[in-house]
Amino acid sequence: MAIGFVLINVTPGAEKKIFDTMIKWEEIQELYPLFGDYDLIAKIQANDYEGLSEIVVNKIRALKGVTETKTLTGAKF
């Protein structure tokens, strides 16, 4: 199981539309709007890191209005 936290920037005014789209995805465990350097943060879950990459590249970055992402992956101790 792979967990990732994705910081997302969007074009001004598109925050709510992107939030409403992403919150419906089964891979999204949590999703919050932010103030500051990023507009949204999403906690996503996939079977492995390849699946995590697939979600970020082919789903999140493919959304019209998403301008930037930064992905932080979970670690195990």
From TrEMBL:
- Report which superkingdom the organism of origin falls in: Archaea
Instruction: Tell me where in this chain the Transcription regulator AsnC/Lrp ligand binding domain is found.
Output: 6-72
InterPro entries to which the protein is assigned, alphabetical: Dimeric_a/b-barrel (IPR011008), Tscrpt_reg_AsnC/Lrp_C (IPR019887)
A Pfam family annotated for this chain is: AsnC_trans_reg
This protein is called Transcriptional regulator, AsnC family
> What is the taxonomic lineage of the source species?
Archaea, Methanobacteriati, Methanobacteriota, Stenosarchaea group, Methanomicrobia
